[in-house]
Amino acid sequence: MRFLSTIPPFNGIGETVRKKLVAGNWKMHGNLAQNSALLLKVAEGTASLDKAECAVCVPFPYLFQAQDLLRRTVVQWGAQNVSQYPSGAYTGEVSAGMLADFGCRYVIVGHSERRRLYAEGDATVAAKVGATQAGGMIPVVCVGETLEEWEAGRTEAVVTGQIQALLDGLGAQAYDRAVVAYEPVWAIGTGKTASPAQAQAVHRMIREVVAQGDQRVAERLRILYGGSVKAANAAELFAMPDIDGALVGGASLDAGEFLAICAAAHESR
Ligand code: PGA
């Protein structure tokens, strides 16, 4: 992995403090009864964690439940997808305005499952990022290489291309009200995780690419790691200087695991 050095490391004087974010991605899991138990446990367990931010991204039908149970807690909530269109004849779609109605703070955009299973390309991702921001919410923009790309040594080219597509489409300012999640596709739901050093190198590279558009924006940008994050590996990932939290799938469905990851973020650096 090439290590660029056009911007100084963020560990000296004038360090930009980026509050860590742990966001749960429930995917298509849950029901009213299970969610209620999980949300109440997460709310209770995070009450004293003021050095990190925690959020859950739930399926659309449960946004009202999340809003209802989390509104007086420190836990934020959000959605896993959004339409790129504001309204109209788009059967089955959900607009940013609708998500904002339910108090969403975050919207996951361009998750690899959406890119792969629903053919969402970089142009669609950029449009959804714009729609999310226009609705006053923060997109969690997912990038990452597939197993074949990783094995072919194409990680840097693929991830740079995904980051650059948004820079080209929306400008560096798009990253000022966004969070990026680096998720190697081969690590999602597989139990395999990139090593902290591997992940750090890619996170650093992402920050360098954004810095070429706007250095201040790059310094402020939170870059989450995703892919089989769990209580057992969270602390070592969060110890890396450019890893600013995690996007958590499977482990976010288990209150104990998720809370341990949130606590690791709270205690890190
Ligand atoms: P995982 O999923 O934690 O189950 O690997 C992460 C994600 O898909 O966001």
Question: How would you explain this protein's 3D organization?
Answer:
This protein has 269 residues and is α/β, with parallel strands linked by helices. The chain has one domain (19-267): TIM Barrel (Alpha-Beta Barrel). It is built from 11 helices and 8 strands. The chain has helices at 32-46, 63-70, 96-101, 112-117, 122-134, 147-151, 155-170, 196-213, 215-220, 231-238, 255-267, and strands at residues 20-25, 52-57, 76-79, 106-109, 138-143, 179-182, 222-226, 245-248. It has an 8-stranded parallel β-barrel, surrounded by 6 helices. Strand 7 (222-226), helix 10 and strand 8 (245-248) form a beta-alpha-beta unit. Helix 1 (32-46) runs parallel beside helix 2, helix 5 crosses helix 7 and helix 10 (231-238) runs parallel beside helix 11 (255-267). Residues 1-14 have low confidence and may be disordered. 2-phosphoglycolic acid is lined by residues 25, 183, 188-189, 226-229, 247-251.
